[in-house]
Specification:
The complex is a heterotrimer of chains A (284), B (354) and C (263). Chain A has 13 helices and 2 strands, in the order αββαααααααααααα. Chain B folds into 2 domains: 228 residues, 3-Layer(aba) Sandwich (Rossmann fold); 115 residues, OB fold (Dihydrolipoamide Acetyltransferase, E2P). In chain B, a hairpin with a 2-residue loop joins β1 and β2. In chain B, α2 runs parallel beside α4. Chain C is mainly α and 263 residues long. In chain C, α4 packs across α6 and α7 packs antiparallel against α8. The chains are: A mainly alpha (284), B alpha+beta (354), C mainly alpha (263). Chains in contact: A-B, A-C. At the A-C interface, α1, α3, α4, α5 and α7 of A face α1, α3, α4, α5 and α6 of C.
Chain lengths: 284, 354, 263
């Protein structure tokens, strides 16, 4: 088989990816530097106006807000996800695959439905309010749906399975003898966790955090459904430029910043993984 | 080698229905180099983990300097373990790995640095202090693991298959190196190994374990020359076994030959037993010996200084192994297919009641 | 070393996290069978809301569209993705650039790919509809199929291909009798995964569907319905969509042990 040119096997898929992913994405990069036409079209003259507009306090504020929400969601997801992954990795080896499977299963089901489930729980006639009434709580209850907290909960809920998966990988590879060696050398359980387990599993944490952050900051479904248009995140802004405001060049410029943030974080994550390198060599 | 440093008393550890360690009692002396020898599943690793504090015994006690330590967690025992996988911390340098245990004792920094440097010197790795474990060779990693445990100056150092991951040549070098280091530090070593040759070369005393039980404990010479069970005889070195039965007051082999040897107590008329003799105790100059066996040479192998013969004989279901020194083989025209007779003395014959 | 209280804490964490993950969905499932349709009171078991779905032409149309998109994009993606995986694994030494291109569709945020494709199609003056959704879904689907098949190929002993040739088989025979049987479970698992991803995908479909009502997919329909609030029909529809995903994934997992990408 080695003499056959594998390039023939690969070329249809690579052509597809080039035409429908690489080129369109490059197009976005270019589009951000054009001017918006008077009637919404695109005028093909070079301009930096869109870029400047991104850094306008109004839009910069939205970026900041999105980043805060995404950062909050990512942090909470990492704390819960790491604890869950640690707990799963501490179970008997034969039980771990099934636990992991069920932890990850929701991730592969419909995102909208999972988000909708929280509307059912949080809305004014929702289950949580009903439960509070049933328990004897009277009077006006604070609105739970259409708040920032609701958005954060929705994001954490949707992306938690991935964080569990990302954190489980290095935890399960951690050689038990390494942990025992630390105990043997006089370290307490907590010191062992802080100085050995945690540093060796940083790559999983970084992967989980970056993933949740990147998908949250560009998200528009969750803010639209659980935030109820009360506030805007970048995703909603991009969505609006393309589907309602019809300012594609500005939308493209916003996306470019989004992509830049994403690339920057992915680079950081690679860096974190490499710093903890060697962690891989002791696996098994 | 006067008083017992460590006393293991009637200690047992079960996992479900498996008796991993079954009522073992052992005394280990100050400054001793002790080997726990056994096949996999013999319980030697479990016993080591009980000593290290990674498992607690179901019954019995473990005394260190007369004090029961069997329920003290590993981080509070003055005992350190060198792990089979070495278990070096991959994200720390050599120096950081070695300093880790001292930091846990909350020693002042200057003292930690001084002791790390001292031990790096002894293991001859001073130049590599800043390397990460994955930048070291197997032999270097082994030394770092050893240094990391030794630097804490434990009362007792446990070593789990310390040379198992090394290649053959390095292994024999390190056997002597380990002895040198043990001598230098004056620390008691307990080594777990499945390699009988390693145990013979390094240890002052050896304990042979099988199915969680202690079969025999003694010096390498005692174990080699006076094995107390057939298993121990076969596990250490090479041994020829001949089926025999007691007829009158003598032992008779399957080919009808009579052999003289110390008859074990309780062996009754007609009952079956096994006679054992080491290959190097069989001699071509058979006239001088009481016990004799005749067979046909089926293979000849040269091993440099000595020569090994395989003899097919009616007395033994397996080929009989004979090890001749170069001197002994000199001037003897031996070739495959020749009939030969070998002889051996009664003192060098062990008889086991199977 | 595992002491009792630590072990109990670990079990507690697992129980809490699983409750968090599964309770909201379970509530949805239960409510879809609630006669009265309201979350506040259980008025009896009923499948009437499922009946309502069958009477809703918009939903039926959307379901049909989704099926077309999922089936078509799965077929194309499975073919392209499998060939890609085989090619990549034969080459073994692939540049970082190539690996990035193959990996990118799985990590690129949906919104970015969605607007990129929208801009691309409209600049080329392509009329958008189900066909543009299909083309777009193939992009990420082929990456997922490729990753599932590659995972299988990583443990594939290529010397059996040489052994087959050595025993006198032609390349075609080797492919038919050795390579394909070994790969089939992974390919089917990849296809099932692609199918569920396509059925569930919303954002890219939303941007590349064009303006007409006739190319609305099920997730788009659900999105539109959710914006008007909680209704028993959505509960029923959600339950159906979830069940399909879970069944397809469980099958995929069974066929290809541990083969879900990222695992």
């Amino acid at each position: 088989m080695a003499d056959r040119r594998p390039i023939y096997l690969m070329s249809p898929a690579l052509a597809w990816l080039t035409a429908f992913m690489v080129v369109p994405c490059l197009l976005i990069l270019v589009l951000g530097f054009f001017r918006r036409g008077i009637y919404g079209g695109i005028e093909y003259t070079f301009t930096l106006e869109n870029m400047a507009l991104v850094f306008d306090p109004l839009y910069a504020g939205i970026f900041l807000k999105s980043a805060v929400i995404a950062g909050l969601a990512a942090s909470i997801a990492v704390v819960i996800g790491y604890a869950a992954a640690y707990a799963i990795a501490s179970m008997p080896a034969r039980r771990q695959p099934i636990l992991l499977f069920f932890a990850v299963l929701p991730f592969w089901s419909n995102y909208l439905v999972r988000t909708y489930a929280w509307i059912v729980l949080l809305n004014r006639e929702g289950l949580i309010v009903a439960l509070a009434r049933y328990l004897g709580f009277e009077g006006e209850l604070p609105s739970m749906l259409y708040t920032e907290s609701a958005v954060v909960v929705g994001l954490v809920y949707n992306y938690l399975p991935f964080v569990i998966l990302a954190c489980y990988a290095p935890l399960s590879r951690l050689n038990t003898e390494i942990v025992e060696a630390s105990r043997d050398l006089g370290a307490s359980g907590w010191t062992t966790f802080r100085r050995i387990t945690l540093p060796m599993t940083v790559p999983g944490i970084a992967t989980g955090f970056v993933f949740v952050f990147v998908l949250s900051i560009g998200n528009f479904v969750t803010p639209a459904l659980l935030g109820g248009g009360q506030f805007q995140m970048i995703g909603n802004l991009v969505y609006a430029q393309f589907l309602t405001a019809n300012d594609w060049p500005f939308g493209a410029a916003l996306s470019m910043v989004l992509i830049a943030i994403m690339m920057g974080l992915l680079t950081l994550q690679t860096f974190a993984t490499e710093r903890a390198s060697g962690a891989r060599r002791v696996e098994g | 080698m006067s008083k017992a440093l460590l006393s293991i008393r009637d200690t047992s550890k079960h996992f479900g229905t498996v008796r991993a360690v079954d009522e073992i009692s052992l005394d280990i002396m100050e400054n001793e180099f002790f080997a726990l020898l056994g096949a996999s599943g013999s319980g030697k690793t479990t016993l080591l983990r009980l000593l290290g504090g990674f498992e607690f015994p179901d019954s019995g006690s473990i005394l260190l300097d007369g004090e029961d330590i069997s329920r003290i967690p590993p981080n509070h025992r003055p005992i350190n373990l060198m792990f089979q996988s070495y278990a070096l911390f991959p994200h720390m340098s050599v120096a950081q790995n070695i300093a880790y245990g001292l930091e846990m004792e909350k020693l002042p920094r200057p003292e930690i640095d001084a002791r790390v440097n001292e031990v790096l010197d002894i293991i001859q790795l001073s130049g590599l202090a800043q390397r990460k474990p994955d930048q070291l060779s197997g032999g270097q990693r082994q030394r770092v693991a050893l240094a990391r445990a030794l630097v804490k100056r434990p009362r007792l150092l446990l070593l789990d298959e310390p040379l198992g991951a090394l290649d053959k040549k390095l292994r024999s070098e390190m056997q002597l190196e380990l002895k040198r280091i043990q001598d230098k530090f004056g620390i008691t070593f307990i080594v777990v190994t499945h390699d009988q040759e390693e145990a013979l070369v390094m240890a002052d005393r050896i304990a042979i374990l099988k199915d969680g039980q202690l079969l025999q404990c003694g010096s390498p010479h005692e174990i080699y020359e006076h094995p107390q069970t057939r298993y121990a005889a076969g596990f250490i070195g090479t041994m020829n076994f001949f089926p025999v039965h007691l007829s009158g007051k003598t032992l008779v082999m399957d080919d009808g030959g009579r052999i003289s040897a110390a008859i074990p107590e309780g062996l009754t008329e007609g009952s079956e037993a096994v006679a054992a003799v080491r290959p190097e105790r069989l001699h071509l100059a058979h006239k001088a010996y009481k016990n004799k066996l005749t067979g046909r040479i089926s293979a000849i192998a040269y091993h440099g200084l000595d020569l090994q013969l395989h003899i097919e004989a009616a007395a033994s279901p397996q080929p009989v192994m004979v090890r001749l020194t170069a001197d002994e083989a000199e001037g003897q025209p031996l070739s495959i297919g020749d009939d030969v007779t070998v002889g051996w003395s009664a003192e060098n014959t062990r008889v086991f009641r199977d | 070393m595992a002491d009792r209280s630590t072990q109990r804490l670990m079990l507690l964490i697992i129980a809490a996290v699983f409750a968090f993950l599964y309770l909201p969905i379970s509530v949805l499932f239960a409510l879809s069978f609630n006669e009265g349709g309201l979350p506040t009171a259980w008025t009896g078991f009923s499948v009437k809301w499922y009946g309502e779905l069958l009477a809703n032409n918009d939903i039926l149309q959307a379901a049909f569209n989704t099926l077309i998109v999922a089936v078509a994009s799965t077929i194309v993606a499975t073919l392209l993705g499998t060939l890609l995986a085989i090619g990549v694994e034969i080459r073994r030494r692939n540049g970082r650039f190539l690996e990035t291109i193959i990996f990118a569709p799985m990590i690129i945020p949906d919104i970015v790919l969605a607007i990129a494709l929208l801009s691309f199609f409209s600049m080329l003056d392509v009329r958008m509809g189900l066909h543009t959704i299909i083309v777009s879904h193939v992009v990420f689907n082929l990456a997922f199929v490729c990753s599932v098949v590659r995972a299988r190929l990583k443990t594939f002993d290529w010397s059996i291909v040489e052994a087959s040739a050595d025993l006198g088989a032609t390349t075609v025979t080797t492919l038919r009798r050795i390579v394909i049987p070994v790969l089939t479970p992974a390919v089917v698992a990849g296809a099932l995964l692609a199918f569920t991803l396509s059925v569930d995908e919303f954002i890219i479909a939303f941007f590349t569907a064009g303006a007409g009502r006739e190319s609305i997919t099920l997730p788009m329909q659900i999105f539109a319905m959710i914006r008007f609030g909680v209704t028993p029909e959505i509960n029923a529809l959600s339950t159906i969509v979830m069940t399909i995903s879970v069944i397809a994934l469980a099958l995929s997992q069974r066929l290809n042990r541990g083969g879900i990408p990222g695992q």
